[in-house]
Structures are given as structure tokens and as C-alpha cells.
TrEMBL record:
It comes from Pseudomonas edaphica. This is GntR family transcriptional regulator. Residues 5-72 form the HTH gntR-type domain. CDD domains: WHTH_GntR. It comes from the Bacteria.
């Protein structure tokens, strides 16, 4: 049975999608009166949606400024990658042969990343790469993990916004995503796990380096 979403849920999901797509950047104010007009919703509904985003670690309240898209810190990066290792490596460990739907979703994410790179749309490259990793976690076929990881990758998107050179930061990952996909498609789980482990190590180190300088 599928439960229908409340308006507050729908608004929260749309705002999360804007964060994932790089359309809402860290430090941007989410002005209540503007959101009321945008969504034709009550103030209480908007406040509920913003509260949910706060619970997901995507917004924070700043005194005298209101609710703003959150700026993540170095410690947040470490925690996010603890979660990534736990879920993505476990998903590969317990995955079977890729079924048609998972295969298509992963391939579509890689194709979208490839197209974005050809267009030099590095913001979209980051988003589609994260979607690919969302599909990796989807191999566990757990709606609860899927929802949780959607919140995690939205926070990761905020990390990536700290990169001063998006092209340099995002360039290495497409070929490595493609390698992981190929290994999964071949049913070579040990090699896929090793490739993912190295991927996450390198991604974490580059992400942490974004916070080494003022």
C-alpha cells in the first residue's frame, strides 16, 4: 500500500531535489513568504517542510536571518563517508545478478553523467554521479535505506559545492563509476567492492581537502 504524501512532504522533496541539482546552494536563505507564494501553501505547511529539511541535515536556522541551506563542515564529511562505506559496500556484498531495472537505472545514470560532462555541465555531472551511487544502495531493495541515502547524498551535494574548481573536482569519477557498473554487470562482486572502496577513499580525501583552506 502506497501512502500519499502531504503537501509539506511534497514541498520538502522538491526543495531537496533543488539542493541535489545544485540549484539551492549553501548559505541561500529559504524565505518563508517567497515559498508560500511559490507553492501556494500556508505558512504552517512551509514551516513543516523546512523543519523536515532541517531534520535531514540540509537546512539550519540562523538567528536574525531565518532558515538557510546548510554549510557542511569537515566533521560532517567524515561522517557522511562512514555512512557511504557502510551502505554502498554492503549493497555490493549482498547484491545478486543485476536485474533489468537496476541495470537500466545504473546505465541511465552513467549515460546522463557522460552527456553532462560532454556539455561541461559539471554541476549536473556531480548530481548524476550521486544518482548512480543511489542506485548502488538500491541493490539492497530497502525503501528505508533508499530514503535515508537520498538524504545523505543531498548533504554530499552541499559538500561538493565547496569545490572552487568543479571541473577539476568532478572529472575523475565518471570512468570509475563506469568501472564499478561493469564489474557489477559481470557479477564480479569482490572486484566491484575493491573498486568502490578505493573510490570512496579517494573521494573522501578530496572532499576533506576542500576544508583545509579558509
Amino acid at each position: 500500500m502506497t501512502l500519499s504524501l502531504s503537501l509539506a512532504d511534497q514541498i520538502a522533496l522538491e526543495l531537496r531535489a533543488d539542493i541535489m541539482g545544485g540549484r539551492l546552494l549553501p548559505g541561500v536563505a529559504l524565505v518563508e513568504v517567497d515559498l508560500v507564494k511559490r507553492y501556494n501553501a500556508s505558512r504552517n505547511t512551509i514551516r513543516e517542510a523546512l523543519h523536515r529539511l532541517g531534520q535531514e541535515g540540509l537546512t539550519r536556522y540562523v538567528r536574525n536571518k531565518g532558515v538557510m541551506v546548510r554549510r557542511v563542515a569537515r566533521d560532517d564529511v567524515r561522517d557522511l563517508f562512514v555512512v557511504r562505506r557502510t551502505l554502498e559496500l554492503q549493497a555490493i556484498a549482498q547484491s545478486g545478478t543485476l536485474t533489468g531495472d537496476h541495470d537500466v537505472r545504473m546505465q541511465n545514470a552513467i549515460d546522463a553523467t557522460t552527456l553532462a560532462r560532454e556539455r561541461e555541465d559539471w554541476r549536473a555531472v556531480a548530481t548524476h554521479s550521486l544518482v548512480f551511487h543511489q542506485h548502488v544502495v538500491g541493490l539492497m531493495r530497502s525503501p528505508l535505506f533508499d530514503e535515508f541515502f537520498a538524504q545523505v547524498i543531498a548533504q554530499l551535494r552541499l559538500v561538493f559545492c565547496a569545490a572552487p574548481d568543479e571541473q577539476r573536482f568532478q572529472s575523475p569519477w565518471l570512468e570509475r563509476d563506469r568501472e564499478i557498473y561493469t564489474l557489477l554487470a559481470q557479477g564480479n562482486k569482490p572486484a566491484a567492492q575493491e573498486a568502490m572502496s578505493l573510490y570512496l577513499h579517494d573521494s573522501e580525501q578530496l572532499s576533506l581537502a576542500l576544508f583545509d583552506y579558509p
